[in-house]
Predict the 3D structure of the following.
Amino acid sequence: MEYLTVALPKGKLFKPSAELLEKIGYTADGLSDKSRKLIITNEEKKVRFIITKTADVPTYVEYGAADIGVIGKDVLTESGKDVYELLDLGFGKCHLMMAVPKEQKRAKLTDYAYTRVATKFPHIAEEFFTRQGMQMEYINLGGSIELGPVVGLSESIVDIVETGTTLKENGLEEIAYIMDATARLIANRVSFKLKFARIGNMVTALSKLVGKEGQP
Ligand code: PRP
């Protein structure tokens, strides 16, 4: 049997992803996001895990370097990668929104037109603002987006909110909702056909666990 390569993201989604896959028998000795070993193999099950930076998971899957992967819908949408989205895994629930400093809140959304917005989701942000008829200046950051308006780098941010703690602690307020996101199981288009039996069985087993039988 050929190996099945699974891409898992470092960070918040790693633990729930690894735990969920373990429940359907997909695991390997030493599988941990703390591991310095970036590829971990289970010879008996013929499964190989690669642990990548979160934003890179769709790239590995699109090129077939990984057959399947777990990634947030936010990062997947932003990446624009051509992969199959097989299943909503339900965990990692958050939403994308626009926030501004509470103290400098303007009367309406369009009052922010032509201002600077800090984000690591420039494509999603641009699509959102274009729909509002707003042209913006995008400042791409790699993380700690909330810092942008606090130090005057930008007037607003587009970022994910999970508990709302980061916004609150930095004096920011959500002023526009953009989209919901949860973790998704994705597959390379060719792998999905060539390894259909294994991937199909995984989707069936996972669907039962996440209570979403009958999903595409
Ligand atoms: C994410 C996001 C927010 C925070 C939201 O950051 O960018 O900063 O989590 O969570 P909360 O609403 O529960 O406070 P992450 O921890 O992934 O780090 P990063 O900003 O450095 O990417």
